[in-house]
Records
---
Amino acid sequence: MKITHIKHSGFIVELEHTVLIFDWYTGKIPVFREDQEIYCFVTHSHGDHYGPCIWRLREQYKNVHYLLDRNVRVPGAGLKTHAKLPRANVTKVRPHKHYEVGSIRVYTLLSTDQGVAFIVEAENHSVYHAGDLNVWYWEEDSDKENKWQVSMYQKEISRLAEHDFDVAFVPVDPRLEDHGADAAAYFLKTVKCSRLIPMHYWSQEAEARAYLDDPRLLPYREKITFLPESG
């Protein structure tokens, strides 16, 4: 398994026959083999998770599948730079559903912001990408809203208690200050995972790395890996 951090929450997971691309919205990506199946995932339509660049894949490769949150717009024939995409290559997804697309299996969770999180099984590997499923605990928000965030996040992640992931991409956002590591801490406590890769920390990597000293993360520190951006 080869993992590339494109930018922000954008990642590529390359397996022997399969390429998984998550939330690519900007930045360069490597060249893939023609015989590989390419799956492009979009958790939701926010500009830091989705970009029109993803549609270039179908101009370069024959075997491309898109799995998109249901609210992500698919370009039509009216756009100058895109031919109409065959329906068979696009799967619009909803939360708490199972999908079989090509050679992979996918399950979705409900985000605490917009869209979905993805659980992907491919070539005997299991991958989790949170999208914006996070504990968005903002100090300026009401106690009611913040309690809802905590409760909903824990409810969704508890659905994964029986899973065992090879890799999980989880937000660690310093803008949340004391709560920036809440999501990662609960995930690691609840779900089996060989490797957790933080994301969604914008340009604040140093601040995100500081959460490694959080007592809740210390027991899992050897599992947490920051990857440099390639894009």
---
Amino acid sequence: MMSVTHPVLCADPTARQPLVTLAEVETKSGLDLLVENSSYGDATVTLEVDMTNLTSSKTLPVTVTISPHAKKRLVRLFVDDPHKRWKYRSKFSVVFGALNTKHDADYHYRLPFEPGQAYRVIQTFGGRVSHQGESEYAVDFAMPEGSGVCAARPGRVVATQSSSNTGGPRKKFRDEGNFIYIRHADRTLGVYVHLEKDGVLVDAGDYVRRGQLIGLSGNTGWSSRPHLHFGVYKLIGGGMGESFPFLFESKRGLVKGPLLGRAYSVKQ
């Protein structure tokens, strides 16, 4: 059996738990390669195989999404000549999210902080600092450390990190940010990043309500000042990441594109 440990797929990434595993099952004509996802979120797996005297049932590499707590056959390998030696070497990578996700573009998200507070946007969609590529449609709110972070949409907590006390204005700190990922009804992921150390107030597997207090903002990870990064994603990481534009409700009305420098407060 082989396994991949992907930090994002762990309730506590420091535990390095192998929540997505690849197993080999022999058959009469060769073998099957099966993947099992033990996490609370969708896992999209890409499998590559170098092989000798074997033929794959599918064109390689193959990329598939495995639902939470599910097992699936990726490929079946057939032995070409049973009188000759066969061998293979596989490599697989994992990103969080589902390939066939279709974002509900009409959903009105709640601002991800507590009522009575107003926070200014310091980076918006397409921001030059870091909102490019997979994070093109994300927004950063300037929030003092320890400020309450609330769920913008209901869903299942699929992963968290709260052990980091490290951050800085360079990309090398990217993986040090404390976070909460929440899987929504349309299989998108609500992403809340830069939380303070021990600032995660929910656990993987929890179902959270819209507006529920889930964490405390901070300054961990790739960050030059205390703030909250929020975005809605299809896939996260591995060069496959993709975010979606989203709408949110504020006291001023429905916001279709957060304005840089504008302060927003929760609609009550």
---
Amino acid sequence: MSGGRVRIYEVGPRDGLQNEARVIATQDKRRFIEALVAAGLREVEATSFVRPDRVPQLADADALLPSLPRVDGLRYPVLVANRAGLDRAAAAGADAIAVFTAATDGFARHNIGMDVAASLAAFAPLLVEAGSRGWWRRGYVSTAFGCPYDGRVLATQPVEVALRLLELGVDEVCFGDTIGVGVPSQVADLTRLALDAGIPVERIAYHFHDTRGTALANVAAALAAGARTFDASTGGTGGCPYAPGAAGNLATEDLVYLLDGEGYEHGVSLDGVLEAARLVSGLLGRSLASKVGQAGGWQPPEAT
């Protein structure tokens, strides 16, 4: 398992912060994103254009997005759920969006108030409009390995939803281990089934949570199966509200350390990510939970 190029898709500013009780000021979110960009990250999911009363932490999306630095090759996808969100995103200068559904009806109903079929029908005109604007489009398929309401999830379920999202025009599908129950054999099975169904590997991404300590093992399994795009959250922030006290998202610094050690190219500086991780931990008022955040990187001593 070594060699090749891997994309790191940073979700810290959106998924990492959205459930935090401590409100982070807009200028501090901008500082965090600037630190991520300085570290070499080129896909940073910046915020959500959803109802402010539902996600008050991200109520400043209209002010935040236009204030962010723009450089060639840098993308700031934003989450949208309806036409009002799409219009707000357009007014703020968005050029990339993500929509969010699930592999299970139970999770979709609890999160977005409709079953999977209804969510896909609702997203169809949004994706068409975004496509007509030339925007990049991503589709999340959450609960790809297990659901807090519907239980065990067969690999066929997320693949079927992913195929439908691709038919609707998304450029990429992202399979999410929302409650952190997936293990490497499931990741290998899902990847194989997706490829067999005709989904190009370059249009597959994974979003792992480290709830039960399996995130990096799942990354390794996905890499072995051919996947090359992974979500991560600097500082390991975020996580699943259905598993109180659990670890959060896969930490970007942990992912970068693994990829560096295995010889993959990705363009992200571990030192830079650690700086950004320390910044966000200070803003949240707590210590870093990630392994590399606690131990740091490692350079072997010179032989004497």
